[in-house]
Amino acid sequence: MTKGGNQMADDELIESLRAALTDDPDRCELRRLLTELLLNAQRPGEALEHARHLLADEPDDLAALDAGARAAEALDDLPRAERYRRASAAFAKPDRHVPSPDPELLPRAIPNSADELLAHWNDLDAFADIEPTVGKLTRSTVLLDHVGGLAPVKERLDRSLLGPLRDAELTGTCESVASDGLVLYGPPGCGKTYLARAIAGELGARFYHVGTADILDTWGGTGGHNLASIFEVARNNTPCVLFLDEVDALGARRSQLRHSPAMRTLVNQLLAELDGVSGDNAGVFVLAATNHPWDIDSALLHPGRLGSLVFVPPPDAAARRLIFSNLLLAQPSNEIDLDDLVARTDGYSGADLRDIAELAAELALDQSMRTNRAIGIDRSMLRDAAAHVKPSIGVWTSIARNVVTVANGNGRYDDLAAWLRTQS
Q1: What strands lie across the sheet with 136-139, from one edge to the other?
Q2: Please, are residues 36 and 216 in contact by the beta-carbon 8 Å criterion?
């Protein structure tokens, strides 16, 4: 690819990451990737802003300190760069090393063959016995019983996935049932990843969590060449649930990628991997999550690929009760009216509920410091916190309502439409 083509692909990826962070500003791994891309694009001012955002949440983030120092140096803000360097040295431990990415060492050209691609990896077959270098492979101990509420979602999963797989184990037809992947979609911060872990736990399978940054970072943000190794790791660790987070970024509609051949290549390769072109996917179940299923290339949603969509709404009353119980369990508390709190938070995401609990804890700490005695969280603090924290899914809901109005002729979003009818 030409230098101009690389720059165009980077620019489109930068805008995609900006949009993702607008929807979910707490995705630190995406912000780190965006910071590096901005530095590579000679945009140090913007990179510094994102580095400062990361450091506001985690002052000991060595990658953010390093990126911030490089951005400050590029802006001739040498005192700030020196402060970041000193802070990095102070926070660093002997066993922690975060090297500065060297753009010259990152492969920017698309490999011409599978052999050329695999030449960049050491002993791919050994991935079954070691931690993969891309994504995170674990054993999930979470079950659907650990997921509060969401009875319709659980029933849908049991009907379309878990039940058929249980029957298939008896009839020996497991492979054909598991060949169709599934997309969990809904507003941000509503537990799609946790639900995916629960599905892996129910299946007794390994859980291989792969995010956008995992796939794009190694190749300088221009391609999906890590996909081959990711699917190979999953095939070597069956039974395995391969969880592709933010799949709308990995599998965007190709009609929107006319000027980004690298991203089109990513979508084409994902299609090939789902079809098992480079290996047998028996024992691999592909789960994906997205806030924007309408941005996914339609070919990915065909049967045999990611053929089923399951809507994951904000937590219902039962789920909110369980979430608040868990969040407040470790906090000193006085009288708490969970029924009142649950009633006040209809339409809030799980992330919003966490913000409410954290704000209430801050209010209790503030009163404790002012009165010089320990004061626990009480009903009034939780009411004040709930009044201060507004539901974060309003913009998403507006977009979803428009999509259902104009693009649900095939009934793909019927579950979403039913939920929207319950919202004022």
Answers
A1: 136-139, 206-210, 240-244, 284-290, 182-185, 308-311
A2: no
Backbone angles phi, psi at 157, to 5 degrees: -65, -40
CA dihedral 217, 218, 223, 224 (to 10 degrees): -90
Give the model confidence (pLDDT) of 156-185 as tens digits.
898 888 887 766 554 455 554 455 799 999
Can you read off the two tokens belonging to residue 250? 């990995």
Cβ distance 210 to 241 under 8 Å? Answer: no
Identity of the amino acid at 198: A
**Which residue carries 């020196």 as its tokens?**
82
* Angle, CA 365 vertex, CA 360 and CA 366 arms, to 5°: 95
Cβ(52)–Cβ(46) below 8 Å:
no
Task: Specify the pLDDT at position 249.
Answer: 87
- 341 touches 382 (CB < 8 A): yes
Phi, psi of 238 (to 5 degrees): -70, 150
Measure the CA dihedral 71/74/79/81, to 10°: 40
What span, in angstroms and rounded, lies between the C-alpha atoms of 379 and 334?
A: 8
Instruction: Give the closest residue to 135 by CA, choosing from 196, 189, 82.
Output: 196
Long-range contacts of 67-70 (CB under 8 A, 24+ apart): 67/32, 67/35, 67/36, 67/39, 70/39, 70/44, 70/100
pLDDT at 273: 93
The helix-helix angle for 394-406 and 414-421 (nearest 10°) equals: 120
Residues in the chain: 424
Work out the number of other CB atoms within 10 angstroms of the CB of residue 89. Answer: 10
Is the separation of the CB atoms in 283 and 240 below 8 Å?
Answer: yes
Helix then strand then coil, in percent of the chain rounded to 5, is: 60, 10, 35
Selection from 366, 396, 381, 375 nearest residue 324 by Cα: 381
**Cis omega (within 30 of 0) for bond into 239:** yes
Confidence of residue 52 (pLDDT cuts 50, 70, 90): confident
Place of tokens 């184990």: 169
Domains of the chain: 11-91 (1.25.40.10), 128-311 (3.40.50.300), 317-391 (1.10.8.60), 394-423 (no CATH)
Q: pTM, whole model, 2 decimals? A: 0.68
Minimal CA–CA distance to 219: which of 324, 141, 140, 110?
A: 110
Helix (H) or strand (E) holding 28: helix 28-40
Question: Which H or E run contains 359?
Answer: helix 350-371
Dihedral pair phi/psi, residue 185, rounded to 5°: -135, 155
